[in-house]
Design goal:
- By secondary structure, this protein is an alpha/beta fold.
- The chain folds into two domains: 182 residues, Creatine Amidinohydrolase, Chain A, domain 1, CATH 3.40.350; 59 residues.
- Helix content is 46%, strand content 15%.
- The protein contains eleven helices and ten strands.
- It has a six-stranded mixed beta sheet with strand order 6-5-4-1-9-10, sandwiched between helices. It has a two-stranded antiparallel ribbon with strand order 2-3. Strands 7-8 form a two-stranded antiparallel ribbon.
- Helix 10 runs antiparallel to helix 11.
- The longest helix has 24 residues.
Length: 286
């Protein structure tokens, strides 16, 4: 009897020691839904998708018109440091390009359509501090836009629009027709503070041109983007999967966290771990 009791106590001691030994080992909680691999999208599929989007925008434009989409302006954090750059939503929607100082121009003259992308030249010194820039070949591969003009000629193009004169780039790209209507992304009204901040450049340009009908391009995009394509749904589902995993990981460790910032760190670590560009909205932990 005594031997049996000793044997049981020995087994319990070994089991408890083993449990204590493994207590500090980080294991994957079984209830967490790990994000599946990102959807695979070929260059051809992406280019076809973006071309369809641009075609739908042009279809929604009036017969004799032009749309000018400026890239988002960098937001300064402090001194010579900017916040992480985020492209203007609608320009990204049509090109998938994250390049600052890029401008897309869409033109419609009857049944004819033309698209031109103004793109800055690569600058190694700038790339050292501000990140990689696209070459024309890379931008074409991503967006599918074939006609490109150096961004240094954008001011000359905008001036030609103001003067109602043809524009000819140094590379041979040309805009020979003068449209009746210009589409720009603009604030909805005078009380639209967010729109004024986001579309400052567009608003200023709209006030500098005369003799054109100015239309707010936001209405075209608002209508088109209500219906998501199969590719958009795939990407949205991937974003949802990453968010779900991040939320589940934060719930799994919240009982062990001493501070709220530790929970936030778990969420944002998961975003980066799954190669998300950035959060869509900041964490609120409380």
């Amino acid at each position: 009897m005594m031997k049996n009791i000793l044997a049981i106590l020995t087994i319990l001691t070994v089991s408890l020691n083993g449990a204590a030994f493994n207590f500090g080992v980080k294991t994957e909680p079984k209830t967490i839904r790990v994000t599946p691999p990102a959807p695979s999208i070929s260059d051809a599929e992406r280019q076809t998708e973006l071309a369809k989007r641009r075609a739908k925008v042009i279809e929604a434009m009036s017969s004799d018109s032009m749309m000018i989409l400026f890239s988002a302006e960098p937001k300064n954090y402090a001194g010579d440091v900017d916040f992480m750059y985020r492209q203007e939503n609608n320009l990204y929607y049509l090109t998938n390009l994250k390049q600052r100082n890029a401008t897309l121009v869409l033109m419609k003259n009857g049944s004819e359509a033309k698209e031109i992308l103004f793109l800055p030249k690569r600058n190694p010194a700038s790339e050292t501090w501000n990140g990689k820039m696209y070459s024309r070949e890379e931008a074409a591969k991503i967006s599918g836009v074939k006609t490109m003009v150096d961004a240094s000629e954008l001011d000359a193009f905008l001036q030609s629009v103001k003067d109602k004169k043809p524009f000819n780039s140094k590379d041979g790209a040309s805009v020979s027709t003068v449209p009746a209507t210009i589409y720009l992304l603009l604030p909805e009204n005078e009380t639209d503070g967010d729109g004024k901040a986001e579309y400052r450049k567009e608003s200023e340009f709209s006030k500098s041109v005369a003799g054109y009908k100015i239309e707010n391009a936001r209405r075209i995009f608002d209508n088109l983007r209500l219906i998501k394509s199969p590719m958009e749904i795939k990407l949205m589902q991937h974003a949802i999967d990453i968010t779900t995993e991040a939320q589940m990981r934060s719930m799994a460790m919240v009982g062990k966290a001493k501070y709220e910032y530790e929970v936030q760190a778990e969420v944002e670590y998961t975003f980066r771990r799954r190669n998300a560009d950035y959060w869509g909205y900041p964490s609120i932990v409380g």
